[in-house]
Design a protein that fits this description.
With 271 residues, this protein is α+β, with helices and mostly antiparallel strands. The protein is 56% helix and 16% strand. Helix 6 packs across helix 7.
Length: 271
């Protein structure tokens, strides 16, 4: 009797100090033992909820998975298996848990199914955070590559654009018929517009640290709208320019501010 008492005390001490929730169930799912971690993991009082069917705490979409795991543990002698499922905590939060089931029905000292439930919510959060960081790193790497490509293409376009603009300005000064001069003006204006867009792309793709200076916000916004002009027109979106003419220049990094304003405009396009 003394040996049995000490053994029971030893078992009780172990289960009370283990952070995992330990259950012992009968083959038909009735709770025979619940460790004190029940309240910490589920939020429900052990005394009030000891008779609760543990499957009722499983997130609805995971009920089938949990039921199958328990069915296997109840029907296959010596079965050991595990699944990751979600629990509905009393406070309404969803907890991610690992559930380990062991068939010990033939063990005379247990005669039940041992269920070990481990809260892995924090680990899941860290894993999700790591995935987001890796995704951001991949995105940054792609953007850096695109930036280098844009910078290279921009330099290649600038040379012929400079020639087109220069020659069109020379032709405008020639004694030509007015209809020809009008067409040359269109060439000059459209070439300048392309040059502005290229310059905006090259500025946006600049891979440098923080460069503070005096920024003209109106001019900056105008450049961004020029960059987005094609997408805006394609999406049948009309941008209304209402700039304050006397807006003072502000200290800041034009490239960083351009990225912020561009993100705001692109978000507004989706509304």
């Amino acid at each position: 009797a003394e040996v049995l008492r000490k053994s029971e005390e030893y078992f009780k001490t172990l289960t009370e100090n283990v952070p995992d929730l330990i259950l012992v169930l009968t083959a038909d799912g009735q709770l025979r033992y619940v460790s004190p971690a029940f309240e910490r993991i589920t939020g429900y009082s052990l005394e009030a909820e000891e008779s609760r069917n543990i499957l009722s705490l499983v997130f609805p979409e995971d009920e089938q998975l949990a039921t199958r795991l328990f069915a296997l543990a109840a029907s296959v002698a010596g079965y050991r298996g595990q699944e990751e499922i979600r629990f509905c905590h009393k406070d309404g939060a969803i907890r991610h848990v690992e559930v380990f089931c062991t068939n010990a029905l033939d063990n005379p000292s247990v005669r039940g199914i041992i269920v070990n439930i481990r809260d892995v919510s924090l680990r899941k959060q860290l894993q999700e955070k790591q995935k987001r960081l890796e995704s951001e790193l991949q995105r940054s790497s792609r953007l850096a590559s695109i930036g280098q490509l844009v910078a290279g293409v921009g330099h290649e376009l600038n040379n012929p654009l400079t020639s087109i603009i220069g020659f069109s300005q020379l032709l405008e000064r020639q004694n030509l018929p007015e209809d020809a001069r009008a067409k040359i003006r269109v060439i000059s204006q459209e070439s300048k517009r392309i040059a502005d867009v290229v310059q905006g792309l090259m500025t946006f793709a600049r891979q440098e640290g923080l460069q503070k200076g005096d920024v003209d916000v109106n001019e900056l916004m105008d450049q961004i709208l020029k960059l987005r002009s094609y997408e805006l027109n394609a999406g049948n979106v009309h941008a209304i320019r209402e700039f304050m003419p006397d807006l003072p220049r502000i200290p800041g990094d034009g490239v960083q501010l351009q990225q912020v304003f561009l993100n705001l405009i692109m978000n507004a396009e989706q509304e």
